[in-house]
Amino acid sequence: MKKILIVMLAVLMACSIFAACSKPAEEEPSVQPTVIAAETPQPAQTASATPDAVPTDISPTTGLEGNTAYKPVMVQIDNADAARPQTGISYADIVYETDVDGSDTRLTALYNDAVNGVDAPGELTVGPVRSSRYYHQWIQEEWDALYVHMGGPDQTSKDETDIWGSSSEHIKQRINGAGKHASNEGLFFPLKDGHSQSEYAAIDLMKALDIYDYEPQALQSFTFYPQQDYADQPEISEIGLYFFGNKTPLASYEYDSSSDKLLRSTRGKEHTDAATGGQLEVQNVIVQFVNDSAADDGPGSDRRIVDVKGSGDALFVIHGKLMKGTWERPTYDSATSYKLESGEEITLAPGNTWISMLPAGKDVAVTYADGTDETISGEAE
């Protein structure tokens, strides 16, 4: 009996040992979650596959974060040799450069972030403020900005060059310091001692902002996101824009890769801002080839007609990379589109932008980072 009991116990123990030994085989599927878990960095891959998320609090004029307000002031700034260095030009979000008389250019500067941002100063002096041309007013229409200038041609032999002609009808509010249509002239003051106000006028943009009495609605808006580095495009060392002849470029930009900025020079000298003392740094440069002709609007006139409507070739320098493309503005009440040769709309880098409206047929001299050179000449229709 005892023997039988011992044998039965032995059998029972053997069965339980066997069951214990065979248990891992039954639980083998439970190791599968470990394998799945090892492959689950899927969300991280999806996030990195999508470019940087588009910020929601960006400036409509620079694409920089921190200012969503849109109440721009556009100012006509002199760019004759005696006018440099200008005051406050480096604070402009967008600057258009146009031929004004066949030997000098004029700057049409749009200020939005500096006057509406959270860090806006108590005062911001800019100048010298000079006269408008009718085509500057068509540039103003793209942005619907409060417009600041010191007079301009108002009795010419051609209606199209009269700044009070059809080109003025869309302007909702302006500050004009000279001529029979002067308005708010008390906001101007002499910028330089010993010179008249009409020659070197300055204006405080924060005081100009105080009299704004409408809500601007821009035709134009630039694309900044998703950001593009255009890494497959050639990098430049310098470009020179020959507005007037081929001896010295009127404007040139040298690319500083350490700051990812284009450093501007004018007539071979560093172009600086009297307010900061520093050389002008530009994030994006657009060269827009336009039709440019003599106005012939009166005896002794050397004024120009710059056609900002139509289409033509364009060059873009973004992150130091040069791309070729086109521009088009079918009507004055439409925005200018800027596209690559592929037809894709250009994406600017967040920051300031200078647009040089270069006469068609004039040269742009390019020196690439690899030391090679190219001369580019564009056309316009």
From TrEMBL:
Q: Which UniProt keywords apply?
A: Signal
Q: What InterPro entries does the entry give? A: DUF3048_C, DUF3048_N, YerB-like_sf
Q: Which residues form the signal peptide?
A: 1-19
Q: Which residues form a coiled coil?
A: none
Among Pfam families, the record links this protein to: DUF3048, DUF3048_C
- Where the record annotates domain DUF3048, the positions are 62-159, 246-355
Which residues does the annotated region (Disordered) include?
41-65
The name of this protein is DUF3048 domain-containing protein
Give the organism, scientific name.
Answer: Christensenella minuta
